[in-house]
Amino acid sequence: MASAPEKIDPRGPRFAASITSVLLLAVVFLGLDSTTEDAAFFLLLILAGLFFIGASLGPTRHPFGILYRKLVRPRLAAKTDLEDSRPVRFAQAVGLLISLSGLLMQVLGIELGLVVAAAIAFIAAFLNAAFAYCLGCQLYLTLKRFGLFRN
Fold first, then answer.
1. Model's pTM, two decimal places?
2. 10 Å Cβ neighbour count for 40?
3. By CB distance 3.0 to 4.6 Å, which of 40, 61, 69, 143 could disulfide with 30?
């Protein structure tokens, strides 16, 4: 018997996406300047680690999720409509894949590969932060409709 999926406050991932989008935008701008490419690589490496934590441990154990739970959520009205954490975990895995591809392209010397990957991840994070539209979550739900994920 499978355990019930973890339920989360949907405002938490949106808060995390806000921080992530700012950091990804920094990666894009740092990556455009040859004198700060190493800083962009290092920052994207850190973000990849954060995506790994979110994908493997879930959004409530992610550092930004903890920050939300400790500092932000107590100041907000209680949320009654909690959501399944599985789409968010999948979205974190997609973010990890995109980040790792950018890091790999940088290592392989593909010009602007890191910047393009960070820009793609930025767009996804920004859509979630600004409009509560999670591309990775939508991809998860689409794949689930096609039977790639079980309940």
1. 0.94
2. 22
3. 40
Rounded distance, CA 106 to CA 89, Å? 26
| 135/126 Cα distance (integer angstroms) | 10
> Taking Cα atoms as reference points, which of 118, 101, 117 lies closest to residue 23?
118
pLDDT at 2: 59
Copy the structure tokens of residue 67: 């920050």
Among residues 88, 70, 77, 71, the alpha carbon closest in space to that of 10 is found at 88
How far apart (Å, rounded) are the C-alpha atoms in residues 86 and 66?
17
Contact 111, 89 (CB under 8 A): no
Amino acid at 116: V
Split the chain (151 residues) into runs of 10 and give each run's mean pLDDT: 80 97 98 96 98 96 96 90 95 98 97 97 98 96 90 66
Half-sphere exposure of 121 (CA within 13 A, CB side): 34
Contact of 144 with 47, CB cutoff 8 Å: no
